[in-house]
Amino acid sequence: MRKGKWILPVLLITLTGCSPKLHLAGNTPQLYPIKNLPVDSSMLAFYKPYKAGIDSQMNTVIGLAAVNIERGRPEGLLNNLVADVMYQAGKENHIEFDFAHTNYFSLRNPISAGPIKAFKIYELMPFENYFVTVKLKGADILDLFNYMAAGGGDPISGATFCIKDGKASDIMIQGIPFDISKEYTVLTNDYLANGGDKAVVYTKAIKRIGSTIKVRDALLNYIKQQQAAGKSISPKLDHRIQTIKL
């Protein structure tokens, strides 16, 4: 044991005594470009067929936009299109809900008038968000509409309301005046259902049901269906959300 105690100090003294003295010559960062690397032909051969297949799919024209489709507040053409597609897809898949709602900032890019290529929808919705239904008490539904009103409006379908002084009023769900004593089910996406975009009201769910339906897939399918039917994409503004100036 006594011998072992002396090993480390001796080594440290020896190493310290033999260590060279280093001086900082400069601290200017430099880039070292890598040029003329040989091409890995086996790697190129491996991924090229996949890239060609994906490029072909992404550049396929899947529909036609009759007008520029952009998001807006309190209401926008893109808002209405996406919310209505969610509503329609939900009903077609026999999902039970009262109205559809998604977040304004999930709509990342507009759809320009003219041919719509598939990759544009992926740019519009780059995230893998799924349909979720959330059942809420009437008081929490009111909080949800106030949340939408405070932000200036969100994409909704199956409901209408007015924004007065940053609060929701004149709320109608399925054409019937909102009843705070009732429970309502909202079709939304999993991001919002988890409380994303500060929508914490969704975390108060009485009941929550997930699905395997992606919001983006619903939109892609709708555009393709319209093209197959010889129809262009032409959403309308219908005053489902109105701002009342006091």
Tell me the number of structural domains.
Answer: 1
Taken as a percent bin, the fraction of beta residues is 15-25%
The profile of the biggest β sheet is: 5 strands, mixed
| Strand line-up in the sheet with most strands | 5-2-9-4-10
Number of helices: 7
Provide the structure class: alpha+beta
Q: What is the CATH H-level superfamily?
A: 5'-Nucleotidase, C-terminal domain
Order of helix and strand elements from N to C terminus: HHEHEEHEHEEEEEHEHE
- Rounded to the nearest angstrom, the radius of gyration is 28 Å
CATH topology: 5'-nucleotidase,  domain 2
- Give the N-terminus to C-terminus distance in angstroms: 88 Å
Task: Indicate the percent of residues in helices.
Answer: 25-40%
Per CATH, which architecture?
Answer: Alpha-Beta Complex
Number of strands: 11
Low-confidence stretches: 1-18
The backbone outline, from C-alpha atoms, is globular
Question: What is the name of the CATH class?
Answer: Alpha Beta
Mean pLDDT: 88
GO molecular function, one term: 5'-nucleotidase activity
Protein name: 5'-nucleotidase
Organism: Arcticibacter svalbardensis MN12-7
InterPro entries: 5'-Nucleotdase_C, 5'-Nucleotdase_C_sf, 5_nucleotidase/apyrase
Task: Characterize the structure shown.
The protein is of the alpha+beta class and 246 residues long. The chain has one domain: 5'-nucleotidase,  domain 2, CATH 3.90.780. The chain is 37% helix and 23% strand. Strands 5-2-9-4-10 form a five-stranded mixed sheet. Strands 8-7-6-11 form a four-stranded mixed sheet. Strands 1-3 form a two-stranded antiparallel ribbon. Strand 6 and strand 7 form a beta hairpin. It is globular.
